[in-house]
Design brief:
Distance between the termini: 18 Å
CATH class: Alpha Beta
Number of domains: 1
Number of strands: 8
CATH superfamily: Aldolase class I
Bound molecules: 1,3-dihydroxyacetonephosphate
Strand content: 15-25%
Shape: globular
CATH topology: TIM Barrel
Length: 253
Amino acid sequence: MRVPLIVGNWKMYKIMNEAVELVNEIKRELLDFRKAEIVVCPPVTNLSSVYELLMETNIGLGAQNLYWEKEGAFTGEVSALMIKDCGCEYVIIGHSERRKYFSESDENVNKKIKASLEVGLVPIMCVGETLEEREATKTIEVIKQQLVGGLKGFSLQDLGNLVIAYEPVWAIGTGKTATPTQAQEIHKVIREWILENFSSELSSNMRILYGGSVTPENIRELMRQEDIDGALVGGASLKSASFVGIVKNSVDE
Ligand code: 13P
């Protein structure tokens, strides 16, 4: 049984008092909620203060990025251990915004996954095609390429906790969600790829999230798909009402 997982990616939003307010509101609504796992990923500047509010609750903490080196003269970067030290259990890796604006390659993604596993963080590895790639019927090819590059060199044991997020770039922040059928098709491709390259057990246990304009209204139908196990939520995770709505609607009453 795969436990549903709903992750809020706050991106570069929320200064300290806003972050505290949002997390307190989420806590108020979801403190007793056990049917899905809930994680929030605030900007790095808020990790410690959000952690203090979430400690020993059912709501987990994640970061949005890290740098693969353990330490050193890398001005402005933050290591896996630093993220973990702030109380994070999860870290988003290879988000399409990082690939696009910060030229992150599959090789970089691979190194970042390795660094996160070394300190016991659970990586949420993002994959997804652009509109151009979809229109050129290259979606599956692109997704497999990202999987091959990002997961190169790992053993079955390494990836026991890995989470994959399918986020079609054209659906991010656009209000244009992939249809449940479109999302399911790619989730199934990902699960089968894991089966072929690792094992059937890993494939059937692995949680694959959908991301891209998820709302309280569309989450139900997405979650009804066999291979969709949760969501990586951007815009709608910035307001407690919509994030709480997504969490609650992600499971049957
Ligand atoms: P939106 O939910 O705003 O489309 O963002 C999705 C996303 O990028 C989550 O990582």
